[in-house]
Amino acid sequence: MAEYCYVHVPFCRSICGYCDFQRAGYSEILADKWLDALEIEIQNREISDHLKTIYLGGGTPSCLKMSQLKRLLQLLEPYSKHVIEYTMEMNPESCNDDVVRLASEFGVNRVSLGVQTFDDELLKMMNRRHTSQMIKEAIHTLNLYGITNISVDAMYSLPTQTMEQWLNTLKQCTELPVTHLSMYSLTIEPGSAFARQHLEALDSETEADMYEAAIEYLESQGFEQYEISSFSKSGFQSLHNKAYWHYEDFIGLGLGASGKENHQRYDHVRGFHHYLDNPLKLELISLTEEDEMFEMLMMGLRLKEGMSLELFYKRFHHKFEEVYAVPLKKCLDRKWIVIDQGKIKATNRGFEILNTVLEEFI
Ligand code: SF4
């Protein structure tokens, strides 16, 4: 049974300019109905009571009314007893005393904070509800209630963003007591407000420069890059996210959540009315052994440490070196990947062109 659990909270108080996630503007009535449906789902899905991680994502879990957040945490309580890492996503404006106290009472011990940038003008342009000052206050509040494992999300390649603004965001983040940073470059999704406003991300060369500069700066500040877009202080890599990259099974609960269990990937059927009518209805995709072998490689190569050849053999009873002999030789010859201490991993060059590397293995 899956030992990792993702729960999607599909509400936000306002919609960010770049967002195309599964979420809706918060409504108290709709959130109550969603919780009723989630309760039915939780009661009828097979959930391990020995979960290692729970990740409350969204949307914005911290935007729920206090009584609703409490109900959500209570629904998950029977499964959280053995959890090592219990993460909740929060946005700075709703990361207040009440929310943080409640979350910590229910065992949340890690918060992923949607910072995005420390530039107030860019925050406004993105239609974020917080200011740079609120980020500092949120982190202070988390510390006050003993939540010291704090991850921040930061975005680059934003319209008009300069290298100076980007580096300043990273500097401000690293000057605060944060343990983990995930960075994302902007993609303009069709249907987002940015697309409607004809806003564009920066050109690919500037984007690549920002990525490089971030790696250099973060590593100089003691944040080790352990995945393409993830950096952590020593001992603070995300267990939950690593489960995805190790291609472990995980259960996905709630409208907007995906999961992977028993050789099947699934999504909940999109749309509130579908979920409220039948929260157990999933769109299933069966994975062949070939799919799984490739997906394991695809996820594993995102990690700096690479993919374990022993684990590959344990799962599939085939040697990686035999299944992929031809592309493996090609990529080794081109120095895109190396095999080191029982792991296959991308070289720096391979990391830069990971999609091209993966194409060889399809
Ligand atoms: S807070 Fe997150 S999920 Fe909500 S609108 Fe903004 S980007 Fe989308």
User: Mind telling me the C-alpha Rg?
Assistant: 21 Å
Distance between the termini: 29 Å
CATH structural fold name of the largest domain: TIM Barrel
Q: Given this structure, which CATH class of the largest domain is correct?
A: Alpha Beta
Number of domains: 2
Catalogue the unreliable spans.
none
Q: Structural class given helices, strands, pairing?
A: alpha/beta
Number of helices: 16
Overall shape: globular
Helix content: 40-55%
The CATH architecture designation of the largest domain is Alpha-Beta Barrel
Please report the total strand number as a whole number: 17
Identify the CATH homologous superfamily of the largest domain. Answer: Aldolase class I
What would a concise description of this structure say?
It contains 16 helices and 17 strands. The protein is of the alpha/beta class and 362 residues long.
Write the layout of secondary structure elements.
Layout: E1 4-9, E2 11-12, E3 24-25, H1 28-44, E4 53-58, H2 66-76, E5 85-90, H3 97-105, E6 110-116, H4 120-125, H5 132-144, E7 149-156, H6 163-175, E8 180-185, H7 193-196, H8 204-220, E9 224-227, E10 230-232, H9 239-245, E11 251-253, E12 258-261, E13 264-268, H10 272-277, E14 282-286, H11 289-300, E15 307-308, H12 309-316, H13 320-323, H14 325-333, E16 337-340, E17 343-346, H15 348-352, H16 354-361
Parallel strand pairs: 1-4, 1-11, 2-3, 4-5, 5-6, 6-7, 7-8
Antiparallel strand pairs: 8-10, 9-10, 12-13, 13-14, 15-17, 16-17
Bound molecules: iron/sulfur cluster (SF4).
